[in-house]
Sequence to fold (557 residues):
Amino acid sequence: MHFINLPKKKISWVAILLLLVACNNKYKENKGKTVFRYNESAGITSLDPAFARSQANIWAVNQLFNGLVQLDDELKVQPSIAKNWDISPDGLSYTFHLRNDVFFHPDDAFGSKKTRKVIAQDFVYSLERILSQKIASPGAWVLSQVKIEKGIPAFEAPDDSTFVVKLKSPFPPFLGLLTTPYCAVVPKECIDKYKEDFRRHPVGTGAFKFGMWKENVKLVLLKNPEYFEFERNKRLPYLDAIAITFIIDKQTAFLEFVKGNLDFISGIDAGYKDEILTPTGELKSKYKDRIELTKQPYLNTEYLGFLVDDSIEIVKNSPLKNKLIRQALNYGFDRVRMMKYLRNNIGIAAVHGIIPPGMPWVNVNNIEGYGYNPAKALQLLKQAGFPEGRGLPAITLTTNASYVDLCKYIQSQLGEIGIKIKIDITPPATLREMMAQSKVNFFRGSWIADYPDAENYLSLFYAPNYAPVGPNYTHFKSKKFDKLYEESILQRSDSLRGSLYEKMDKLVMDEAPVMVLFYDEVLRFYRKNIEGLGSNAMNLLQLKKVKKNNSHGNQEN
Fold:
């Protein structure tokens, strides 16, 4: 193994820590030093922000890099390397004013000084890199609204502390898009030095810097002592290091957490949910002296979708093209009971619209969805010409194996009112392809927000976004909806835009191109000696403000 940027004249505590981490899976932290430990069962494929597509990559990249702006726990956009910004009255030009005290992590690529200050030209380079076809970053879409002039993106650096972006048309969620890790600043010198290997030799500006990475075994990130952010006049971060393991088996990782070898786990696996949670979703009493549990809405909506475009052959003779049938299906099963008995109340029964709770500027309580009302479902079936389901052909629901239990529950409840459901189990990749190509007319879907704006969800129903070009898998089309959507994109006021979003969601619920099942929740389990972990509706992990107490209850930092 080798160490990156460690002092050559003496072995520091950092070197000792890295040696222990690399060589002993049950290492003990150096006295007086704090290491935050978590497991990443999905593995990490790259530490290059250009490839921060999966949650595993995003969590690690967030510790190493910064962008112009960042999100707080309420998902509001806050300054980061940009201390403030101006937006032109027409919404087409964004001017960012940069801090002058942000430096890249030390690296030999910078020459004898080992580092240098971040300047506006670094953002020109970094964002152009994301759009480069040579790089083929999966994050290029976040900059799709940027104006292209003679083949060159409209990024400008009039001086070292000013960065300007010009858009081809107004897009109010653009600031939210810039908070994604794809838009983090990277140094050209280090990209030139490491090239494709930058994925495992990251050099950023974040609260933590790269220590060592033995792929599929352990990743260690070290405190950046020159980080630019402060909290109550104290420089962040508080932790000395982060150690990430890659135990594939989630039950094994859970046991490591219970034994105290990990400080934090996110989410819950079916294999141990009944071990740690009560049937109502609370932490079992035997763990309350060691573990904390926080829950909050997660910007992930789980739904069943209907293909409603009757120009497509499989829809022409389908009963699902009838709105009354779709509404009957929505009223015909009990979401609250489903969440209680199948998910230990992890998640919120979706009795509102497609927009989940936790989304800024939208009050989901204003949106009336579908509660359990079998009498109403029977009434709608009768109106559609199928009293008590008589004469209604069986309807095939296509899902993947992970959702069979939910689909069987829905199948059983709808059967009680005369609606016959057949379940077709398909591999996830196959199902996604069938949805994109409009080859399935009743399917399981979900949507996780990429940025904190409800436009994320409503784009699923905008006609120009018909799949496979866009995410409108239902091929829903409404002139009224499209007009509201286009009006919202031009609206600079967050509150007024939120009001338009609510109107659009109400319209979608009335037309019922989807059956919204539940809104997911973020579950975070962490040990009692962890403070400041925080939580947010996008399940972002940010460790710069986390503190860890020692076994005697005194602050180690």
About this structure: The first helix runs from residue 13 to 23. Residues 101 and 124 are 19 Å apart (CA to CA). Confidence is low (pLDDT under 50) at residues 1-12, 20-29, 552-557. The first strand starts at residue 35 and ends at 39.
